[in-house]
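Hi all, long-time lurker, first post. I run a small reading group and we've been trying to get comfortable going from sequence to structure in the token notation. Rather than ask abstract questions, I figured I'd post a concrete chain and ask someone more experienced to write out its structure so we can walk through it together at our next meeting. Sequence below, copied exactly:
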Amino acid sequence: MLLNRRIIVGICGGIASYKAVDLVSKLQQAGALVDVILTEHAEEFVRPLTFATMSHRPTYSDLWESSGEAAELHIRLAEEAEVLAIVPATANTIARLAHGITDNMLTAVALASQAPLLLAPAMHSNMYTHPATQANLALLRERGVHIVEPDVGLLASGAVGPGRLPETAVLMGAIGMVLGQKGDLAGRRIIVTAGGTQEPVDPVRYVGNRSSGKMGYALAAEARDRGAHVILISGPVALPAPYGVELHQVGTAQQMRDAVHSFFLDADVLIMSAAVADFRPARSAAQKIKKDDQASDGDLTIHMVKNPDILEELGMLEEEQSRAQPSRRRCIRVGFAAETEHIVEYAQEKLRKKRLDLLIANDVSRPDSGFGSDTNKILIFHTNNAVENLPVMPKSAAAAAILDRIVSLLDA
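-- Answer (accepted) --
Happy to help. Here is the structure in token form:
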């Protein structure tokens, strides 16, 4: 979604400016055309050559250079930009933007541009929480400026508090979200489930699976970058929450079922990529089961019962709602099938039985398509019996391919 997008990254004179080097590098690697504008004081922390090397483009800073070309240049940059991200945004620059002061290249471009403005404040906690800074930020929010809240943590001064610049992944997510505000999923509500569930045996042990949640989180991020309001219902995973999505964390299949049901009737799309446990222990022990408490042979037998089939339930609910309200907007439902054999047969049966609009299947026994892998090899099954066999690709690319098909279904 960043390929050939015109992004200006503004760098202010704060110690966190060195972190923006990684942001510019990551944006360039994603295919964006990144123009970097530094304030005079930013050059004291990081040299322009560093950003030029990372962006593969010239950098800009001097509005008052002798040739006068900057007077024309700042207007051209402002008009070409699709988003202006100021990272880090210091209290000084925030105040200038709030009150329309244009005494350097960065603030002049910001005032001249119609592109969305994104600020990532970074400064000492006392400066950030000062009423003047908070008033300036509130004023900018009222004008539609997107503010990425700073992290709380150890600051350069040694103090602990709000004011740390968020990590690059968060900033990338914020930029992607702002760029996607008018995307092909703008105004849509999309539920994505991700990760596996954990069915407790006792307070210590559980029955689960190997799902990492990477595919579901990639889908949530891609939908966000296309303008959707994303509700991510996630089992336990070791992944950071994607910026700008509504995250609901659950543990068991029953908890995931309840969460999905609570949002389903208002959703345009449900993408059920979570690996929900098919079975759970019939009884969970209140205390940790001790080895010495078991039969003399040392074996432990766990009686398992079926978990509810969330997609099948929702298929029946959708039919009931359609009969009761024929004019009601129908929710597009997408399922996943992680298989180790007979993939086509099992996927086609699941597509039919659960009344799905799309079924995404993969062979999790493959090293390039299994749980925890950063790539996926998927087959997409359609209701008209068409099957698309996609090549191995990063999960982010697989997510984009899946959402392309969903957009087509919504448009139809």
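A couple of things your group might point at:
The chain has two domains: 6-180, 183-411.
Residues 18 and 46 are 6 Å apart (CA to CA).
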